[in-house]
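A note from the maintainers: we've had questions about how concatenated examples are separated. There is no special marker in the raw files; a new sequence line simply starts the next protein. For clarity in this README we add a label.
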Amino acid sequence: MFSMKARIHIVVEGRVQGVGFRFECRREAIRLGLHGWVRNMDDGSVAIVVEGEQDMVDQMVKWSRSGPAGAYVDACRAIPEPLTGEFDSFEVRF
């Protein structure tokens, strides 16, 4: 079976900082076998970049629309990007 890989940049807005969003995001990405990073942005949003199997990337976008318990997502934008293969893990960036 042919597998499609994808990369997506997700921007999540709402009450998404100070609620464990980044660490739960990392846990979910690892569970899905994705590579990339997550970090808090100065404007209060959370940015996520993930690469991996298309269906797993899609699941990460779906997870990002609600986030962990305690988060309240107002908006979630998913922007496809060219696949680079630059990551070998998933990390929380500061």
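[label: protein 2]
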Amino acid sequence: MKYMLLIYSEPWDPAQVTEDMQKAELAKWFKYTADMQQAGAYVAGDALREVATATSVRVRDGKTLTTDGPFAETKEILGGYYLVDVPSLDEALAWAERCPGAQFGTIEVRPLMEFDMPEAGG
């Protein structure tokens, strides 16, 4: 079963993060990713650029509206994700608990809905 581990945290202030702090934090994430890969659970994962680079798209009554930034105003922002393929929700929750982001933010674990797509042109 595939699960998304959605990583939410408060935005960080680059002015308050030294290069050494950033290197130490990245080392935690790289180890976590390597552990997940070695366990065979890793499918994909990426960090997202800062929320100011986001564009939201809505279509209402046939009209498209695009706005800068995320749709919802929240204190925590979606900063990245991992996609894991594990046998159970318990295993997905265990990976979420090990995620470095769980120490300062929230990891939302959500199962994927997988569909059998019809063949193109048929």
